[in-house]
Amino acid sequence: MKNLKLGTFLREPLLHFLLIGALLFFIYDVQNENIVDNNRIVISEAQINHLITLWEKKRQRLPTQVELENMIEQQIREEVMYREALAMGLDKNDSIVRRRLAQKVEFISSDLATLTEPTEIELKDYLSANSEKFKLPARINFVHVYIDISKHGTNAEAYANSLLNELTQAATKVNIDTLGDSLLLDQHYRQLTEQGISRLFGKSFAEQLFTLPVGSWQGPIQSGYGLHLIRIDNKTESQQQALNTIHEKVRMEWLAQQRHNMDKVFYNSLRQRYEIVIEKTLRKDTAATSKS
């Protein structure tokens, strides 16, 4: 019961705002501290241990004392150059620096979203609300006979219909390998989704295939290549997957949605601290003002 109450409390929007406020206070407190003591560089024990760990992972051994001193000196050099760059204003008007700093602030809201794990009920609700995202797509097995329009011209459709009549009326099995025209694609396909067929034959062709009945020759259907006579040998309808079979996938999607929601709350709370002024432009050649 206590854990349930704690989980509910962690999901309260008020708590999220409090956490955002605390983080902002921390950021500005650290920022002001750096301004006051800007000429003092401290290489902490944690930083040194981090340097040793990185060295050990890369080289599979601990650094010697000289190597460690060199790493520490490099860290000091980097910090000195960084502070001098800030003092000279080199971080100003640099789009790459601006983007990187903005991303680091965005990471804060992402971290907030991972403070709590979803409950099973929340995952079930998320799966139910986003069922299309997690469905197994429909698949079909089919075989086709190709008719080259460039070869048969205005008679292509009549030729296709004559082949269709031969396939549907034949008393004995017809060798389809000898029918139609050659095409640098397979004649038989198995377990293809609509997306997979679209990549091969085009979107309209794929959509029509999934409306055809199973077991009989149909067509002609046109693709970007020409005309096709189609026989659907098997069709598997799309299926909703059970939560226990895609639990981790649903969890990751849920967390991603929480990060997105938290990012919106976090950004709006920051944006409200500023007066935003967007000046009008006198240019007439922008995409927004151009007319086709």
What does this structure look like?
With 292 residues, the protein is an alpha+beta fold. The chain folds into 2 domains: 2-128 and 248-271, no CATH class; 138-237, Chitinase A, domain 3 (Roll), CATH 3.10.50. It contains 12 helices and 6 strands. It has helices at 2-10, 13-36, 45-59, 65-87, 95-113, 120-129, 131-134, 149-152, 156-169, 194-201, 203-209, 247-271, and strands at 135-136, 139-147, 188-193, 217-222, 227-236, 239-240. It has a 4-stranded antiparallel sheet with strand order 3-2-5-4. A two-stranded antiparallel ribbon has the order 1-6. β4 and β5 (227-236) form a beta hairpin. α5 (95-113) crosses α12 and α10 (194-201) crosses α11. The longest helix is centred in the C-terminal third of the chain and has 25 residues, at 247-271. The chain is elongated. This is PpiC domain-containing protein. Residues 137-234 form the PpiC domain. InterPro entries: PPIase_dom_sf (IPR046357), PPIase_PpiC (IPR000297), PrsA_foldase (IPR050245).
